Amino acid sequence: MFYVSTGSLISSGRLKPGKIKRVSAKSDQNGIIGEFDTEFMDDARHYENFISVNFFGDAFYHPYCASVEMKVHVLTLKSSKSDFNAKRGLYVASMINKALKGRFNYGQQLSSSKLRDGEYFISLPVKNNEIDWFFMDNYIEELEAAHIEELEAAHIEELEAYLIAAGLSDYQLTEKDYLILEHFKNIEFSGFPVTELFSVCNTGNILSRDIIENSGDVPYLCASRDNNSVSSYIAYDDSLLEKGNCIFIGGKTFVVTYQERDFFSNDSHNLRLYVNNEDGRTKFAYLGIISCIYRSISHKYSWGDSVSNRKIKDDVIWLPVKNKSPDFCYINDLISVVHKLVIKDVVQYAERKMNAYRQAITSRGYDDSGVS
């Protein structure tokens, strides 16, 4: 069914970046190790519309022109190359993989002579005692269609998960949302003493050596920027729980996060800030206030000059104002709209990925008569 040949040895020092794919003995990435300028090398061996088989017995179909390394075997169809296209190549390669799976390793490598002379058979569909290439086309098309359907269902599920996690029914901006964004151009800011805005408390102190990581479902916080300052989820003495729906500040690092749930803290230098005004106690208001805290005072603190309960009470936070008072309602509304925009970007990115994959599957750049 196939002519069997091999690649050639070219030292890595001679390989320069180019446009020709090079097939190696690796068992992933279709065997491709990169793209190089082998086109004009006399000792490079190039093939197109072929199946490569490495010395482990791993087979890959290649519709493009590629150079091939030594110890990689090349199978080219003995009959007309027009019988071979992407779908048929994938089908046949999968049958070769099935036939050779588990037979070869470093100690017992597949050689070209074994491929030519060994008793290796693959099962292929036939019709009227001839290979049924059209069956392969239809079979792969059906697999692709089923896979795309699965991906689209997963994509819809992913979209719904984004919206549920965000507390949204959809991510489309309303007329009110656009007005909120437009109003930002005219916003005025004023400074307010921290003590006027917040109740400030130190957290408790539960050392990491005293906990069992991942022993429960309560967040255990540290002063890290990663994972919203959550180091682990633990079970511990409930009397040491800190009340959530607050701003958490890592005392030594000035990492500022919103904590929706009750939590445990690793260090008594850490701070909890609770907004005094009820309008400022929503999740989105807190997130907006955190941005204002960073802009207002983050430049003052460092590892060598860390924030403390006493120091922060002398600070001033600049916030949007209405009638000379903090406009917590606008902060909430603005962050809510920004949240929608972020979710919209995530969804559109996922949709672009889905469309690109769908296009790659349904139009590989080859027609049914062979390689274009």
TrEMBL record:
Which keywords describe this protein according to UniProt? DNA-binding, Restriction system
In the record, biological process GO terms are: DNA restriction-modification system
- Can you name one GO molecular function term for this protein? DNA binding
| Annotated ranges, domain Type I restriction modification DNA specificity | 12-152, 192-322
Q: Which Pfam families match?
A: Methylase_S
What Gene3D superfamilies does this protein's entry cite?
A: DNA methylase specificity domains (3.90.220.20)
Family in the record: Belongs to the type-I restriction system S methylase family.
Protein name per its UniProtKB record = Type I restriction modification DNA specificity domain-containing protein
